[in-house]
Amino acid sequence: MNSFPKSPGIRMAPSLLAADFTRLGEHVDEIERGGATVLHLDVMDGHFVPNLSYGAVVIEALRDRSKMFFDTHLMIEEPKRYAESFVKAGSDLITFHIEVVKHPEAMVAHLRELGVAVGVSINPTTPVSAIESIIDDVDLVLVMSIWPGFGGQKFMPEVLDKVVELKKRLGPHQRLEIDGGIGPKTVGLAAKAGVDTLVAGTAIFRQPDPVAAMKQLYSLAVDAVGEAG
Ligand code: DX5
Ligand code: ZN
């Protein structure tokens, strides 16, 4: 079923962008066995962001070997044109960027028709007001804490004000995700501000033991909010 998990609590969403691309399948197996339930999949088109990553064929190939929730982050100029292919490839949630969508209500309706959970993302300088017309109709809001396009960038703490604002604004079944520069020094700040889904690429896959790194980040996040899991 493609409904977004409604359980409360903090989850790590490892981003495959920082993985060794010759070993994607092994990385996926490893983090899933290590307890990951969400996999963050970064799709870039070289237009909305100045980089290319991978597309639906890679997601489809990974779908066969994983039960994780596939959280697909579309950093592309024409999300409506390609959404169906990412749903068919096995995405459980599709996040589009508000900055490129002229008719956000129609985009949300399109994704609902495709039977996929819906996320909307805002860039570091995009205000929360930009998503006002659809905020109650999405399953997840993704706050970018870097300029999208590349992993390994420095966390922008100024976006945490938007996290605090969104945390107050969103309902109990809506998820709040952050993406970019999440590591041991920043994961607690994000969790404390109200994020429940924490994307991390470099801080997981570029570490000698990705599973240990993921578990450490999770513990730091949980400690920061003082909850049991
Ligand atoms: C970048 C992507 C991120 C990226 C994060 O545009 O959206 O998901 O993988 O990488 P780190 O965790 O290295 O900042
Ligand atoms: Zn991402």
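^ zinc ion complex. The longest strand covers residues 38-44. The radius of gyration is 16 Å.
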